[in-house]
Design goal:
mainly alpha; Rhomboid-like fold; three-stranded antiparallel β-sheet; two-stranded antiparallel ribbon
């Protein structure tokens, strides 16, 4: 998340083809392509490029700057929810999207697309909300209005800091952050400090809000054992979108026709509920029959109506089975 003056930066498309090439290269090596990560990359890039078919649908940058003062004063939810998806310039966009590519592939592959979608939606709201509360708290308790309460900022980096916290929460390894080796689980904190020291124009409060949102998300997830409502909503939405395809498949599905009146020794899994196996001769009979078609032995689960009690079934000799078959088919 970067600070700005409220004006749109110059648009140079020199780095975006490199981003596209790197994304295609990474995805081509994956057996399972994470669709939500690709969608987020495409959405952020299209919003920045503003092609003609989207130009009239998208708000301007001046309408979506994240500014705590304007959000509280006008209850402007558009600034609250849309500012993470807008970027100041091309380098800002490409740096964030490369980070999203790596974190998104890692997280979506491990947790699945539905849970990843719910996590991203939750982290967007939580990181923005925590940043807003931090700015308001500094104003109320310390009368610290500038620069945070009137700060203008944009970008997906607050959410990326939250994703970094989630991805590294269980790691016991070490990693390099700008040449400094730190425990991986604390990498987000090290990056927060180092970026603030060496990269001008970044939003300290936006990045800090992302880290705290990631920690809060992990705490809530650990304490809540029920189904994730956002994930359930996404699964329901996906199920609703796929119903025409399921309908066509059900209409075109060719059901195998069963010929003959039974099979010996084996059962088709699809017909398991319609057939029963004789315990005397192992012949599979139709569920509509109460007596074995091969040897005449009664169905074991039919109780008193069976011609032969269940307790005597296993005592039948081979000769008795042969005699019953001859009698039955010689009628």
């Amino acid at each position: 998340m970067e600070r700005g003056s409220g004006k749109w930066g110059s648009i140079s498309r020199g780095m975006i083809p490199l981003l596209a090439l790197h994304t295609v290269s990474e995805y081509s090596r994956l057996d399972r392509k994470p669709p939500i990560t690709a969608s987020l990359l495409a959405a952020n890039t299209l919003i920045y490029l503003r092609p003609k078919f989207l130009n009239y649908l998208l708000p301007t940058t001046d309408q979506v700057w994240f500014n705590p003062h304007l959000i509280f004063k006008y209850k402007d939810l558009k600034r609250f929810f849309l500012s993470p998806f807008f970027h100041i310039n091309e380098s800002h966009l490409v740096y964030n999207m490369l980070s999203l590519l790596w974190k998104g592939i890692q997280l979506e592959t491990s947790m699945g697309s539905a849970e990843f979608t719910s996590m991203v939606a939750t982290l967007v709201s939580m990181s923005q909300g925590v940043t807003l509360l931090l700015a308001k708290s500094l104003l109320i308790f310390f009368d610290y209005e500038r620069p945070y309460y009137n700060e203008y900022s944009l970008g997906f980096s607050g959410v990326l800091f939250a994703m970094k916290v989630v991805a590294n929460a269980q790691s016991d390894e070490y990693t390099y952050i700008h040449g400094l080796m730190v425990p991986t689980r604390y990498a987000a904190w090290a990056e927060l400090i180092l970026i603030q020291m060496f990269v001008p124009g970044v939003s300290f409060l936006g990045h800090l809000g992302g880290i705290l949102a990631g920690l809060l998300y992990l705490r809530l997830k650990a304490s809540y054992s029920g189904p994730n409502p956002v994930r359930q909503l996404m699964r329901g939405f996906s199920y609703a979108l796929n119903w025409p395809l399921r309908l066509v498949k059900s209409l075109l599905r060719i059901r195998p026709r069963i010929t003959g009146r039974g099979t010996t020794g084996g059962r088709n899994a699809r017909d398991t509920l319609q057939m029963w196996r004789c315990q005397a001769c192992t012949f599979d009979n139709s569920g509509r029959l109460n007596v074995c078609e091969m040897c005449g032995t009664g169905r074991a689960d039919d109780g008193p109506s069976s011609p032969v009690p269940t307790s005597e079934i296993h005592d039948l000799s081979l000769e008795e089975l042969r005699r019953r078959r001859i009698e039955r088919f010689g009628r």
